[in-house]
Amino acid sequence: QAYASTFILLLLIKLLIKTELPTVTLQPNWPQIFRGEKVTLRCEIHGNRGAQLKYEWKPDKQNSPTSSEYRINTATESYSGEYSCRARRDYQITDWSDAFRLTVEGEPIVTLQPNWPQIFRGEKVTLRCEIHGGGGAQWTYEWRPTSSNSPTSSEYWINTATESGDRYWCRARGDYHITAWSDVFRLTVRDKPTASLTAGDEIIPLGGSVTLTCSVSSSTGWKFDWFRQKSESSGAQLIRNNEPHGVISISEGGLYSCRAGRGDPVFYTENSSKVTIYKTGEFRSLLLNNKTRQV
Ligand SMILES: *[C@@H]1O[C@H](CO)[C@@H](O)[C@H](O)[C@H]1NC(C)=O
Ligand SMILES: CC(=O)N[C@H]1CO[C@H](CO)[C@@H](O)[C@@H]1O
């Protein structure tokens, strides 16, 4: 009997504590809040009939109110966070409410993927529509100009960059919202670059090697291919492929050239001009061989 009444008493206390716990609600209660919107967080205590309470808010930002309403007149991403409140009257205070997560979504931005500083005529280009803080939201996208390639996806493909000065915009659509159009993204397309090849030396010393450097003066993301011809008349052979650094060391004479490529499908620069590399020793042994044969 005594056990049962203690149990019921504890349960009652627990219930009482629970009902005294405030909750944070959002008005209007949209699942997504965007930059620039006006919203209000409200601290509610179940069963409070007009009692004059004082409130505290967490995080304690500048000008956090002491009233039950936390008004945000112009939402920005910096208001994103987890909010709790508690109420006080005379010398009684409630516990902190459960945290309420507020996420303020930014504006959409068009970015280049990967973010290369320059794009060249003939290259395949990927644009992406990104929304700051928009992780997890179920968006569909719209693009200007419209494209049959990617009508509602966050990525937009331009199969072969041609025009210079083309302009693109995107916006995102959620269940209850549509964002404003992004700022304009201007795609500037340049002429295909030429790789340039420089040799550390044109003569390979006996038993040594020479360094060749392949480079492209504009943009980034390049990988390098190397070709060698044994003589003027023979065909070029690919000797190195997809080297991340444009420097190789060679110990064979020949005509060397290089090119750079990037992307998928690979976009190649023009071939570099050819550089002749001589090898000492080989020539001497050639002569020696002929001499011994003659002897
Ligand atoms: C570059 O050289 C390679 C090897 O000779 C050749 O296969 C390729 O077509 C050349 N590329 C261009 C753009 O001329
Ligand atoms: C001048 C001369 O005899 N040259 C020969 C040297 O040897 C090579 C190959 O062994 C021949 O192709 C050259 O004709």
Describe the structure.
With 295 residues, the protein is mostly beta strands. It contains two helices and 26 strands. Strands 19, 21, 22, 24, 25 and 26 form a six-stranded mixed β-sheet that branches. Strands 4, 6, 7 and 8 form a four-stranded antiparallel β-sheet that branches. This is Ig-like domain-containing protein.
What topology does this entry show?
Layout: H1 2-20, E1 23-27, E2 33-34, E3 39-44, E4 54-58, E5 69-72, E6 81-89, E7 92-93, E8 100-102, E9 104-105, E10 108-113, E11 119-120, E12 125-131, E13 140-144, E14 155-158, E15 166-173, E16 185-187, E17 189-190, E18 196-199, E19 203-204, E20 210-215, E21 223-229, E22 237-243, E23 247-250, E24 254-262, E25 267-268, E26 275-279, H2 282-294
Parallel strand pairs: 2-9, 11-17, 19-26
Antiparallel strand pairs: 1-3, 3-5, 4-6, 6-7, 6-8, 10-12, 12-14, 13-15, 15-16, 18-20, 20-23, 21-22, 21-24, 24-25, 24-26
Bound molecules: 2-acetamido-2-deoxy-beta-D-glucopyranose (2 copies).
One 2-acetamido-2-deoxy-beta-D-glucopyranose is lined by residues 227, 236, 259, 270-271.
